[in-house]
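Input chain follows. Return structure tokens only.
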Amino acid sequence: MNYDQFKRNDFIHDDSFVRWVLFQEEDVFWQQFLQQHPAKANEVAQAKQLILAVQKAEEATSLSLDQKSIWNNITALISEEEIVEKQVSFLPRFWQTRAFKWAASLVLVAGAAWLWTMKQPAHQVNYQDLIAVVEAKSPRQEVVNNGPTTQKIHLEDGTLVYLEKGSRLSFPVHFEAKKREVVLSGEAFFEVAKNPAKPFYVYSNELITRVLGTSFRISALENSKQVTVKVQTGRVSVFKQNRIDIADPETKGLLLLPNQQAVFNRANELLNRSLVEVPIPIVAQKTLVKRQFDEVKVADVFKELEKLFGVEIRYNEDTLSDCILTTTISDDSLYDQLEVICQTIGAAYKEIDAQIIIESKGCH
């Protein structure tokens, strides 16, 4: 399927796109598509919002007063012909086969609600919104770093937080029995004490980061256009929250491994995974030694880089079977080493969804 020319309505009627929005199927493909076609981000975001609005409408049993009000306002924005067209052709075949049998009136209301919402300024989740919710759950304390340097904070569970200047952190006097929750505005590096029985949650604008024990950095500046989570050790799950609801997030999240990051665009609400700008070795410092490879298959070198940096490198092993290489692997820049290897064997590499993809026609 060629999605390059797709418009918003084309995405809405595409089975694969709907499966991705509703069930996160084929996530790697669609994340790759968005990276390769950034100009489509706005139309994709609009289509996602409309699909999710219709999904929510399925749960409704009658028109609420708010929906009626929205409908009255929206009739001034869309023509009668557009309403008829949506009524006839809105539901794609996939939804019908999955028994998503929405009433036509609910579909129209959901579509109208979405169009009306698009005309309103979006409300972004911020620090004060989050604090207003968590304060009702338990007594809390707040640290604001007004100094010129990073401030080190010791939490009661042994977690260390390195709070950057101009940032603030809210946390309870005592953590709950089942989970540890903090709220961040600004930027901080976390070294979370391991406790599998009590997960650690960081709420930062529209993102929730869930960990058991790891180290990572979050940048969630109040007026920034994006929120970023970068993992140094361990693994974390990152979730998007569309409303002020401090509770256990869904079990499905965007899983991040060492040297990976999640970037949430607050304008189009897209959450993307990629490698950090400068991947660092994940092996113990004392084991870091240069390793010499003499006349070996390039696949063996890629496997060594994978272990050293914790990064998945994908390639066609049959295509590269005749590629023999002599080189040295060290803790230097991953990208510099990939550049040298690819130039040597006449290949190229690119990053997609936090993976390195090697493109080669082979060595003959």
